[in-house]
Amino acid sequence: MSGPFHTQLLNLACGLFVLTAVGVLWRRELSALIGLLTVQGVALTGIAALLAVDVGSGEAIAVATGVGILKAVLLPLLLRRVLRRVPEARETAPLVNVSASLLAAAALTLLAYAAARPLVALGPEPTAHAAPVGIAVLLIGFFLATTRRRAISQIIGVLLIDNGIAAVAFLATGGVPLVMELGVSVDLLLAVLVLQVLTTRLQAAFGDTDLDDLRELHDR
Amino acid sequence: MVAPLPVAADGQGSRMSAGWAVAAAQAVLVAAVAPLLLGFTRAVRARLEGRGGGRIAQPWRDLRKQFRKEPLIPADAGVFFAAAPAVLTATSLMVAAAVPYLSTQNPLASSTDLIVVVGLLLLGTVALALAGLDTGTAFGGMGASREMTIAALVEPTLLLSVFALSTRVGSTNLSAIVAAGTTDQARVFSPASALAAAALAIATLAEAGRLPVDNPATHLELTMVHEAMTLEYSGRDLALVEWASAMRLTILLGLLATVFVPWGVATNLHPVAVALAAALFVAKLCVLSGLLAVAEVFTAKLRLFRVPELLAGSFVLGLLAVITSAVLA
Hints:
The structure holds 2 protein chains of 2 kinds.
Chain A: H1 4-26, H2 30-55, H3 58-85, H4 98-115, H5 117-120, H6 126-147, H7 151-173, H8 178-206
Chain B: H1 4-48, H2 58-67, H3 79-98, H4 114-134, H5 138-169, H6 174-183, H7 191-207, H8 226-229, H9 235-260, H10 271-298, H11 307-328
Helix pairs in contact in B: 1-3, 1-9, 1-10, 2-9, 3-4, 3-9, 4-5, 5-7, 5-11, 7-9, 7-11, 9-10
């Protein structure tokens, strides 16, 4: 099952994976960000499913199904619930403006490809060649989480980081054990649930979810 | 040693002359089709908006009317103002003849490097911007400054998006890229070319002054870019500038169609193949300009300060396309 068509599909999924990460930096509407995150979840599921078909084991297929349910269905649903409670539609004033952050994304992607050279050199398979894609998304996620003000954008940044890590794990190793994937997934779900509660409390206390209002946690 | 040479040279000579004929045919075709394409875009848009709209040949009629009128040159305008229409038209015709729209066997092929094509287009843009400054009016200067801002952001994207295709061919020659595309159909639909096509489409909109970047149908002082530079032109000069702008749109849409959907481009100089290529070329242009009209119905003009975001986005798409084609495939 690893003919040229299979490789093309894998490349397509990887391309979509990075593209949605760049799109998250591009758009300002929070609902559009959640839509892009959903598409990214689908792309990640595609990567996992293609690798599972490649390996052909039931465990890998179970992992791909789990990833699909969590990343493409459950997490976007949770985020949409948060968005309904918190009535702010747009990321109005990011710390770095949109054009600069897009150029930063380009630089981060180049950095990821430069840094992942040893990883690519591990094997001649197309999966190893695509591994830098995951690192690029990870870096873009970090960038998003540090430069955006709205709580929802920051949660999306954290989720991008996790998607990136998951993609590197899949692409570099050719599959993750079910127990490990289950642990990571439940952990992530719990984190998002906690962040959801936190966001709602922020909204109740300050009237918006600008995290710069949390002055009391700062060192004086 | 002596005998075969004239025969070979003669064969070479007739091939060369056929090649020049195709190049000239291309330039004539683009020049003839460009105003019609503009009329077609306007007609589709009018129909979608529920208006009657003009006929498809209306831009040609406008051009004919303006060509008969005497151009007026402002008292303070200098040589740049007088030269710009000719430079703009000449560069457009040059690019139209050189890009392999109909056949990859173009006598200009050895010099139709991507960088030459982008450079020629930029030469026309700069000529018009200088003309806008030359008149000394406030609007001309404003339009020129905006046009240069946009051009500085668009040119890198134009280059990058076609570089993504040239990495797999190993050459920046457009004929080589198109020839590789016609022989190797499977590689035309790769993630890299999808990303590059998206980047080039956005760059085309910006370079041709279409809707999200510049509204071609308005003369509102605060928003116009291209119209502000051509405000002082009249008569024959205005006709040349408008004609060249229409040709630039056709050239860029044709580049998009030829590079990313290279089906039907002839790889030889046989008249039937070239005629078929011409028909397919016009059909592709119609599809693309129809899509452009539909997209323009649903989009509003961006604020000028949001335009760099759009162009930075297209630059990133182009860069990702280059990375993907260099590393993934």
